[in-house]
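Review form for a predicted model. The reviewer records the input and the model, then writes brief findings.
Reviewer: anonymous (R2)
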Amino acid sequence: MSILVFGSLNMDLVVQSPYLPQPGETLTGRNFGTVSGGKGANQAVAVARQGAAVKMVGRVGADAFGQQLRQALSTDHVSIDSVQIDAETHTGIAAIAVADTGNNHIIIVPGANGRVGETDLQRLQIHLTTAQILLLQCEIPPVIVAQAAQAAHAAGVRVLLDPAPVPDFDLKSFYSAIDMLTPNQVEAAQLTGLPVTTVDEAAAAIAQLQKDGAATVIVKLGAQGVCCGTPEETFHLPAFAVSVVDTVAAGDAFNGGLAVALSAGKSLREAVIWASATAALSVTKSGAQPSLPTRSQVAEFLQENR
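Model under review:
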């Protein structure tokens, strides 16, 4: 059985700056680089680095960035047979500014990701018969995300949705097909209209999301840890203390680690601890995919930070 990822592939265009600019402000940055990214591809690499079999379904353009992204996935042992090359558009890109604090601003231009559609969904459905978990995000058209979730749910495949970025689409319409919804605090606030800056506020947002039809909700709170709500209980787990270099892909690291841990039979609490450690390690390095840790690195980190 494998883990499936249906989502975006982007080339990240990354600039470091002393702080994030205000509207109209021009800053002198440093250390520009191109880094393989996209929430879908990041999650696929996060899974593969931890030794699980993973297939990626998505699109890139027929350009140099697309070739580089496919090669990067293949090098990390992600199956790319279902990553289509779309000759009618460019590969998706993300323009990222990373401040010295590790915080970031991201602007995404979807490119091929915005053209993911029925043919991609058909390729996904072929793989559902041998899949254990499906990871979804919202950097591809949300109507296709909804159909993918419903198809996976009907096939008995566990569905994890990272609602990032929150689309102009009624996600509540397919909450019933989602096993776990994993927003960060900003996304939880956008989905509920409630403030989500504390653990108590996260718990209230979880209650609202469950009222809206979500089953299990995991709200990622950064330095405040993770708040989890199931139909039976709501609990909080503190964050691991690490030196933050770059928070890009921390959420993707979390979801990839969560999927690996759940596929290995860990309980939700154990899986969230494993996922939190994966995310903690990712923020100690720069870049999206370059920051994603291996299984042995996560195991060693947990051994040292119990």
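Findings: The chain has a mean pLDDT of 95.
Further findings: Residues 2-9+38-91+111-304 form a domain with the UDP-N-acetylmuramoyl-L-alanine:D-glutamate ligase fold (CATH 3.40.1190.20).
Recommendation: see findings above.
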